[in-house]
Amino acid sequence: MISCLSLSSYSFCEKIALKKYRRCVKWGCIKRPQVVSGAKKDGFGLRVFVLSDLHTDYPENMAWVRSLSTKRHDKDVLLVAGDVAEMYDNFILTMSLLKERFDYVFFVPGNHDLWCRWETEDFDSLEKLNKLLDACKQLGVETNPAVIDGLGIIPLFSWYHESFDREDDIVGIRIPSLDMACKDFHACKWPGNLSNRDSSLALYFDSMNEKNQNTVKRIQSTCSQIITFSHFVPRQELCPEKRMLFYPNLPKIIGSDWLEDRIRSIHGVESSSFACHVFGHTHFCWDAVVDGIRYVQAPLAYPRERKRRMNGGTLSISQMSDAATNRSFVRVSDQEMASCAWFRCNRSKSDSSLQVCNGLTRTEILRACSHNEHVLEAWDV
Ligand SMILES: [Fe+2]
């Protein structure tokens, strides 16, 4: 779950092709990534560990952080790519524990870090962001660009926007709305004209990086190796295709084009001996090169996700209701990235309406739903 990047001898056979990338983006073309081998185990020099989506509001995840060695990483760097905890107190505890274990800890905020629904104090998400950044400063956790042993490390603020999604939508099935699927729409509180429903948040967070431009330029001129990192996703190729997703509209709430532009402006246009960007948010483990930059995600993720991944997958079921349409849905999945289906609850239909759907057999669906009082009708089979 925690990933170590080898800095000593990694090199790319591909050159960065910015012009090509921009042309592809303009035309809506999506290029799937080249998967690369993991970090070299015999690397020497500075060790950089990366981690995202700790979600330590779950006691199991907080216990995992506590279980990290207090001695093994005293000369190491840790990049925390957002979603540490929803509760402010859990955030402080987690970052304190990490700072006790790693010599250098860097952080960028994720969406869950800015949720306000359970906080005792009355503040909005931007006020909470400032509180988190102040707390990091007091704990010695870095949130600004810095150079460690000649390695440039650049945290990048970001947020997602719906127009980041350029893949054709899945048609023929009913998919729950973004409001229903994404708690950010209810758990974040934004002041003024900022909203999850347009590009305003993506632009606002991207502009927060401007204050560091002079430091970034200095790092570019003095460091041959640079790692950038963000919570959100810079390219849609870093997410599985929609037909493979548990929630096919996921690409609408994960990434930012401005983030990728900023990453390209830092890592250079033509070539780089080392160009790496670390991200989080989707909870998919990732390590791939796209247009000359290595992109890495190493999420701790939710306890239930780890359990599903480690036992090979069991059918799970959960129920949600969409206030906007006054409908109920049940979702059934076998693994995080494998077969899944959405169902509309319908008490009046007989179970004979169930059919094979998205690779799940009728028996599998019935078994998964046996504890549910509703009889289900498949959306589209
Ligand atoms: Fe997230």
UniProtKB/TrEMBL annotation:
It comes from the Eukaryota. Pfam families: Metallophos (PF00149). Gene3D superfamilies: 3.60.21.10. Residues 46-134 form the Calcineurin-like phosphoesterase domain. GO terms for molecular function: hydrolase activity. SUPFAM superfamilies: Metallo-dependent phosphatases. PANTHER family: [ACYL-CARRIER-PROTEIN] PHOSPHODIESTERASE PPTH, PTHR36492. This is Calcineurin-like phosphoesterase domain-containing protein. It comes from Gossypium stocksii.
